[in-house]
Design brief:
heterodimer, A: 775 residues, alpha+beta, Aldehyde Oxidoreductase, domain 4, 8-stranded mixed beta sheet, 19 helices, B: 161 residues, DNA polymerase, domain 1, 2 domains, 5-stranded mixed beta sheet, 34% helix, globular
Chain lengths: 775, 161
């Protein structure tokens, strides 16, 4: 009925008419505005801070500084919400100025005088690990942390994940060839078009009202309790539509500043809204990486061993970077069967903006490293890179790097994805062709897989309320960040209740007081977890409808069916009650009544997840592994090193496609983001680790007309646990893009390209030799 | 200090006369949003780079973060709220040309002006116009499909007398 159809998203007309409202669109008379004062140094001691002139400026109510505040952080509490004593990255917040208007706050922010003593700055993970490198956190041993975080005090290592599977020495001994590849890229950014924004207000009874552009409204509630001891019941978080997130709005940062600012002005409502520049560097960024991959294989290309070192550039604070580094380790080999795996994944502190989830959560990063190595292996062995991937494709019965045995349900069909990709790309016809003296076309491919490493006790709830016309309201904690998940939930509910999806209404906004919790809108788990909760809620509603109808129709509830706006006798559908007559209970002709409003409740919690063993990594980090095979076709100009991305392909195992056009949009959007990241995005740092391009004019995402033709297909291998078998698809499109682009360009230019972004200058430098320097 | 630089402005917005008191230094974007409650135009960079704040001034798409409100006195301003069932809005819905929706008002205003002004726009013209806006959710292919469909329909339809 509704599942499998391209239902238009429920908020579509709000969005094309300008009526859709985001956090910063809600303005209130008397609301104060906060502006952040940030550090001009990446590493420096704060000698003094003088806010007197700022406080005397027109309209200023308060200047909030960092003394006496608790440390924050989800895995390890290493970050002061406002820097004290020391700043550790360029753009770190040192004070928050609160004034009547934004303009007044901006003017006063310039009057805050801070005296710094610059310290040597650490610029990359490998630099941070060198003997004698400056330490970012001298007291790493004193930080509060959870049980699964393993910092190494006295170093810049915030966390290390170890994967030990099989026998690595034996694997290499059995190999005919061993290929080693190193890759690297600097941190970059999510660039959601809506910059982050939060407001806070504290009412006289102590109730804290937060509004936030966030993927984690429920986590805000939890963390305000953890950090500041506020009662969770008195914290209410409101999240309207979110203008793009891609992982960047999962961490909690501005919300804490808004809370502190409101507290400083007697609880008045204060808005903290990021400028684009602050959003790019002051708020958390997309992680950087340096990695080395060593693959041992037989001369036929069969993998025998993989040894991987990931050095993730977590930036100044560990935030979710620890988790990202762990997620990459969990799936370190990519979607291939490897019996002997040795991986160390380190989350390293550097004096750079701190990192947080970015769509694909460590997996496009992992794939870039391993898939470049696979292409180099294929080149060494003179084998077809597609054949090598096909030969090693992961199958049910194999185990993952963390030793989870795969089944037909918990892993997608990797061979099917690869086979279809080969056909779509006409891979066998050519992989590199010279069109004329200067123009080369080339193709590159990549595999990808991902499981969702989320908290083992993450849960999701859904409430369905009925209206007196028989229509239904869906209330879920999934934030509408653009993925259309709430519309898909409406489809799931309509399918189960056998009703018209137009009669299923969705509450878009989140209000943590009335919306059941959904852990975080991350990890492509919205459809799975909230979908299961929605099915449970629909079943609960069906039970209630049948109970009331059973009484009225004088029939056993077991003999009744719900659908098409009715409760009817299975045996004789002509005997029925319209749902609208019982949705609020049933009133008999004599005035007697039974029942009451039908309210369906459902929840879902992931099962059997475990933390990883600290020594071997063994454990079950996520519920299922979605797989994909992806490719890129480029046209490279050998004269000026420019190139055009002609086509981009993805074949993704979607389990079951619930909304075809929405699914295509998710895949293509993710691919676009991956190509943009790989081809042109990345922060440029000077020697002092200041970011040189925190603006969309100098940090330039892909624009209209630069986009290739997108060709996307889905394979459907149902995951038995998931609603209608659907697997997460919001991230897979991105995973293979950087690697596929790098593989295509390496083939075209005839030189290994192992760094991102793949700008013409990089290709030129690699061809001329690194010693050629840069322009 | 600030109060002395404020003045009353009369703007023509979406066919209505609207009077507002604003700082002379205020951009059109902030006056539309904070003064007139027209929040369809979005701040994305306040630097003219992203196009999320695009509105029409005398029919020309303008990044409203780059224009002072005072400069628009005597001009006709059209925001997304002033579009009435335009074909491009329908096409955006049909082609799933947006996801989070934040860049959508700017994109639609720009595309609408392109269609109105250059109904015969070729590939190069479409690119030249639309490359001034950034969308981070879609692949742009969905937006391209919507714009081309409206242009095609306009070409096929009989011209107004």
């Amino acid at each position: 009925m509704a599942v499998g159809k391209s239902i238009i998203r429920k908020e579509a007309w709000d969005k094309v008419t300008g009526r859709a409202k985001y956090t910063n669109d809600f303005k209130e008379q008397g609301m104060l505005h906060a502006v952040l004062v940030t550090s001009p140094y990446a590493h420096a001691r704060i000698l003094s801070l003088d806010a007197r002139r700022a406080l005397a400026a027109p309209g200023v109510h308060a200047v909030v500084t960092g003394e006496g505040l608790p440390l924050t952080g989800e895995d390890m509490r290493d970050r002061p919400p406002i820097a004290v004593d020391k700043v550790r990255y360029y753009g770190e917040v040192v004070a928050v100025v609160v004034a009547d208007t934004l303009a007044q706050a901006e003017q006063a922010a310039r009057l805050v005088r801070v005296v710094y003593e610059p310290l040597p700055a650490v610029g990359s993970p490998s630099e941070a690990l060198k003997e004698g490198a400056p330490l970012l956190h001298e007291h790493l041993d004193r930080y509060e942390k959870n049980k699964t975080t393993h910092p190494e005090p006295g170093t810049n290592v915030a966390h290390r994940t170890k994967i030990r599977k099989g026998n690595i020495e034996q694997g290499f001994a059995e190999s005919d060839v061993i290929v080693e590849t190193s890759v690297s890229f600097a941190p970059s950014d999510h660039i959601a078009m809506e910059t982050r924004c939060a407001t806070a207000e504290i009412w006289p009874d102590g109730t804290i009202h937060i509004s936030a552009s966030s993927q984690s409204p429920f986590m805000i509630k939890k963390l305000l309790h953890t950090y500041f001891g506020e009662e969770t019941g008195k914290i209410i978080v409101h999240t309207p539509l979110v203008g793009g997130a891609y992982g960047g709005k999962a961490p909690v940062q501005l919300e804490l500043l808004a809370y502190l600012a409101s507290k400083a002005v007697g609880g008045r409502k204060v808005s903290v809204w990021n400028s684009r520049e602050h959003d790019m560097i002051t708020s958390p960024v997309h992680i950087g990486l340096e990695a080395t991959v060593k693959i041992g294989a037989t001369k036929e290309g069969l993998f025998k061993a993989m040894e991987i070192l990931f050095l993730f550039d977590g930036g100044a604070y560990s935030d979710k970077a620890i988790d990202v580094s762990r997620a990459a380790a969990v799936d370190c080999t990519g979607p291939y069967h490897v019996e002997n795996v040795f991986c160390d994944s380190l989350c390293v502190y550097t004096n750079r903006p701190y990192a947080t989830p970015f769509r694909s959560f460590g997996h496009c990063e992992q794939a870039f490293a391993v898939e470049r190595a696979i292409d180099e292996l294929a080149r060494t062995l003179q084998l077809d890179p597609w054949e090598v991937r096909r030969k090693n494709a992961i199958l049910p019965g194999h185990t993952t790097p963390t030793q989870v045995r795969l089944t037909k349900s918990n892993v997608g069909n990797m061979p099917a994805c690869l086979d279809r990709l080969r056909e779509l790309m006409r891979w066998d016809e050519w992989q590199r062709v010279e069109l004329d003296a200067y123009t080369v076309r080339a193709k590159g491919i990549s595999g990808g897989w991902k499981t969702s490493t989320i908290d083992t006790d993450a849960s999701s709830g859904v409430i369905l309320t009925f209206n007196s016309d028989g229509s239904v309201n869906v209330i879920s904690g999934v934030v509408e960040i653009g993925t259309g998940t709430k519309t898909v939930l409406a489809q799931i509910v309509a399918e189960r209740l056998k009703m018209d999806v137009d009669d299923v209404h969705v509450k878009m906004d989140i209000d943590t007081q009335t919306t059941p919790e959904h852990w975080k809108t991350v990890a492509s788990r919205g459809t799975f977890m909230a979908g299961r909760a929605a099915l449970a809620a629909a079943d609960d509603a069906i039970r209630q409808l049948k109970d009331i109808a059973a009484c009225v129709l004088r029939a056993s509830p077991d003999d009744l069916e719900v659908g098409f706006g009715r409760v009817f006798l299975r045996d004789d559908p002509a005997i029925f009650l319209p749902i609208k007559d019982i949705a609020y209970g049933y009133k008999f002709p004599n005035g007697n009544a039974i029942g009451g409003q039908v309210i369906g409740r459902g929840h879902y919690i992931l099962r059997h997840l475990t933390p990883l063993d600290p020594e071997t990594g063994a454990g079950k980090p996520g519920p299922e592994w979605g797989v994909c095979a992806e490719g890129v076709e480029i046209e490279f100009n050998r004269r000026d090193y420019t190139y055009r991305i002609v086509k981009a392909y993805a074949v993704i195992d979607a389990g079951k496609v619930l909304n075809p056009k929405a699914a295509l949009g998710q895949a293509m959007g993710a691919m676009s983001m991956g190509l943009s990241f790989a081809s042109r995005e990345g922060f440029l740092f000077d020697k002092e680790q200041r970011v040189l391009n925190p603006q969309l004019r100098t940090y330039r995402p892909i624009r209209f007309g630069e986009h290739p033709e997108y060709i996307v297909e889905f394979v459907e291998t149902p995951q038995i646990d998931a609603p209608y078998g659907a697997r997460g698809i919001g991230e897979h499109g991105l995973i293979g893009m950087p690697a596929a682009l790098a593989n295509a360009l390496s083939l075209a230019a005839g030189v290994p390209l192992n760094e991102l972004p793949l700008v013409p200058e990089l290709i030129w430098r690699k061809q001329k030799g690194d010693s050629y320097g840069s322009v | 200090m600030e109060e002395t630089t404020k003045r009353e402005l009369v703007l023509h917005v979406n066919g209505e006369r609207r009077s507002i008191v604003a700082r002379q230094a205020e951009t059109l974007l902030f006056v539309l949003r904070d003064g007139l409650g027209l929040t369809g135009a979005k701040p994305g960079c306040l630097n003219g780079d992203c196009g999320a704040c695009t509105v029409l001034v005398d029919g020309t798409p303008i990044k409203s973060c780059m224009m002072l409100a005072i400069e628009t006195v005597g001009k006709e301003i059209t925001t997304i709220e002033g579009l009435d069932d335009a074909p491009i809005q329908h096409a955006f819905v049909r082609h799933f040309s947006f996801q989070c929706g934040y860049c959508t008002p700017g994109f639609i205003m720009n595309a609408h002006a392109l269609i109105e002004r250059h109904p015969n726009a070729d590939e190069a013209a479409i690119q030249e116009w639309l490359e001034s806006n950034i969308c981070r959710c879609t692949s742009y292919q969905e937006i391209e499909a919507a714009v081309k469909e409206v242009l095609e329909a306009k070409k096929a339809a009989p011209t107004d007398p």
